[in-house]
Design goal:
Distance between the termini: 20 Å
CATH topology of the largest domain: Jelly Rolls
Radius of gyration: 24 Å
Strand content: over 45%
Largest sheet: 10 strands, antiparallel
Number of helices: 3
Number of domains: 3
Low-confidence stretches: 1-14
Oligomer: single chain
Number of strands: 34
Shape: globular
Length: 398
């Protein structure tokens, strides 16, 4: 399966520049000039860089933002998500038109839900209501409609659907609902399907994500089969990223901490909620919505903590290493001074002072078998002035 993915990636050569990321946080941008089962060779402005496939997290094509719009979004039972422009159903077979104009057919048993609204045009309030509806435990299909500015739904059996009418069986009577009144449909599956183990994920430039069971390539086209059995052919020009990191690496900014506590240096009898919200830890961005920057380098992933903050993560003993580039954010250098302590299952793994007058520090800790990881950013030498600790590319790896 992995070799099939490598074959797909081999066609990336000449398809524009790619940024290659490794599991240990290295990255390089250039043309893919060679690919085999052991390594990937990238031609960069500085020369050739060689990356072992076993250490590869992914490859991202450097391309301008896609301007195409989708009219609807389809979520499959295997977690794939499809941006599309048209959706019809006849005899439990869905006909889907992708934003590329390509058409695919898939059984409704492979579909979790369809919402007839583009992600870019969704109202936040209705988005929350939609999520609540999709997480219900129905005993039948759901027909979701928008009524008086809110979402409502009926439970029954979904039938054929086209641009004009959605047929819906309610109390053994088939009713015809005008399609423009339908916000979305949610399919009921009595038994969860058995899904093959994925080997990666492909993200298209329109935002679609295809969970990969297998991928093969031919004449500039990648043929993907998802764990749910859905097959699609995608031109290489439509692919934004291949991701191989699933199960190998987890960025802390993508994980939900078990606890996250912030305590200001000067306490309040009644702490203003706006103050707490501003100083709570940030994911992948700084406190003024600025990028994470250390020693002049910008980082896409990471955590930003104000003293005093304590984060706790449940790891279940699944990971071997914790790695990060740690320092005081460039926006407040040279003022900050933070006392940092990192524990694994209550045992101190590293502690020390991190100061803005010092260069960023590369940290690698052995966390083999650790079930709980605690990270503390405490007050340093100068109260809490400039205490903006960045844990850039903070990640746990197997």
């Amino acid at each position: 399966m992995m070799w099939n993915l490598l074959l797909a990636m081999a066609l990336l050569t000449g398809a524009g520049e790619f940024e290659v990321q490794t599991l240990d946080g290295q990255s390089a941008t250039g043309q893919v000039v060679e690919m085999n089962a052991e390594q990937l060779v990238l031609q960069t402005a500085q020369g050739r860089s060689v990356f072992a496939i076993a250490t590869l997290a992914g490859a991202t094509r450097q391309a301008p933002a896609d301007e195409r719009k989708s009219n609807l979004w389809i979520e499959l039972v295997d977690q794939s998500g499809l941006a599309a422009t048209a959706y019809t159903v006849r005899a439990a077979k869905a006909q889907v038109t992708l934003t590329t104009g390509a058409r695919i057919e898939l059984p409704t048993r492979a579909i979790h839900w369809v919402r007839f609204t583009s992600p870019a045009d969704r109202d936040a309030k209705l988005a929350k209501q939609w999520t609540d509806v999709t997480e219900t435990k129905p005993t039948g299909d759901l027909l979701v409609v928008r009524k008086n500015g809110a979402l409502d739904y009926l439970e029954g059996v979904l039938g054929d659907l086209d641009g004009e009418v959605c047929k819906f069986e309610l109390d053994k009577e088939v009713i015809r609902v005008k399609r423009p009144k339908v916000e979305g449909v949610i399919y009921f599956h009595s038994n969860a399907p058995e899904l093959a183990e994925p080997v990666g994920q492909l993200t298209a430039i329109d935002g679609s994500r295809w969970v990969i069971r297998t991928a093969v390539s031919n004449d500039g086209v990648v043929k993907v089969t998802t764990p749910g059995g859905v097959a699609v052919e995608l031109p290489l020009s439509e692919i934004a990223r291949f991701d191989f990191s699933s199960g190998k690496i987890a960025y802390l900014s993508d994980l939900q901490p078990e606890t996250a506590n912030y305590v200001p240096y000067f306490g309040f009898k009644e702490e203003p909620s706006a103050l707490h919200e501003f100083f709570r830890y940030h994911r992948d961005i700084g406190f003024e919505q600025n990028p994470l920057r250390l020693d002049g380098q910008t980082y896409r992933k990471g955590l930003s903590l104000q003293s005093r903050t304590v984060l706790s993560y449940k790891l279940a003993g699944k990971f071997r290493l914790f790695k990060t580039t740690m320092g005081i954010d460039d926006s407040v250098r040279d003022a900050g001074s933070v006392r940092v302590e990192i524990k694994g299952d209550g045992k101190v793994l590293w502690q020390g002072d991190v100061r803005g007058t010092e260069p960023a520090r590369e940290l690698e800790l052995n966390i083999a078998g650790v079930k709980r990881l605690d990270i503390s950013a405490d007050f340093g030498d100068d109260l809490d002035i400039g205490d903006r600790l960045d844990l850039c590319d903070a990640r746990v790896t197997k």
